[in-house]
């Protein structure tokens, strides 16, 4: 049986050409997108509650695939919950102090929790992401006890980065469970 995977997109959700959506479409049944009421006005507490509900429904050993603001929501969820999960792929972690960060529409995500994550994690970053300097992403990985992967100049690692099904990212995800993803 395939491992259950929870997709946690960033602000505005991930459209059809985003790698998260492509992955989700290719694995119907076992992959689920977190259910958020308003993707454009992000409230951290609401996102954390949604992640908690979906992880509980999917069960232990769920693997979480988060992008951008979804990464911050997952880290806040981890700081408030004790549910065991199989791991988390944190892609394009944004810096709330970056000029591009959507502060007016992203409430309660700062300060970022600074505790080590209680499950395996990989932080993936691009060295030309407008939402966070590569040094910020590296610092987050160090604080959270995550493996760090620099993929070079790829922008925000979203649909505009033209990653398509992002095979490189999928190989990183498979590190959590190579035979069942």
UniProtKB/TrEMBL annotation:
Keyword Hydrolase carried by entry: yes
Keywords from the named record: Hydrolase
Top-level taxon of the source organism: Bacteria
Hydrolase in keyword set: yes
Name of the protein: Serine hydrolase family protein
Native organism: Caballeronia novacaledonica
